[in-house]
Amino acid sequence: YAFQCRLHELANKRRISIAGASKLLANILYSYRGMGLSIGTMIAGWDEKGPGLYYVDSEGARLMGSRFSVGSGSLYAYGILDEGYRYVMSVEEAAELARRAIYQATFRDGASGGCVS
Questions:
Q1: Cβ-count burial of 1 within 10 angstroms (0-12 exposed, 13-18 middle, 19+ buried)?
Q2: Is-annotated flag, keyword Transferase (predicted)?
Q3: Which of the two ends of the chain, N or C, has the fewest CB atoms closer than 10 A to its terminal CB?
């Protein structure tokens, strides 16, 4: 995947966009559909269009959004994200919201590395 992103950069004399990188990954994963892969990941970055965030999974699904949570603890993280997210946030506020969401997911979901009480 990184190799193909680099090839795009060399061929086009500019870095691949976040949208392009997410589409490339979705196409790669789609080609392995039905072979037992189970992947859910996020592609995040900044390009000439500004910030970009995409969710890509092993079925080749690709969604653009402003916030995602992936994994078994994601339901717990979404509770925090939905309650605390605002369209305009400082870097510090966004980092604190992310920290709280990850903490909640790891605390409540044993498979996310935490203790379940």
A1: exposed
A2: no
A3: C
Sheet holding 50-57, edge to edge: 40-47, 50-57, 62-64
Residue 15 has what DSSP assignment?
Answer: P
Q: Residue 105: which of 96, 115, 90 has the closest Cα? A: 115
CA-to-CA distance for 29 and 37, rounded, in angstroms? 8
How far is Cα 46 from Cα 63, in angstroms, rounded to an integer? Answer: 16
pTM for this predicted structure: 0.79
Domain spans in the chain, listed from the N-terminal domain onward: 1-65, 69-112
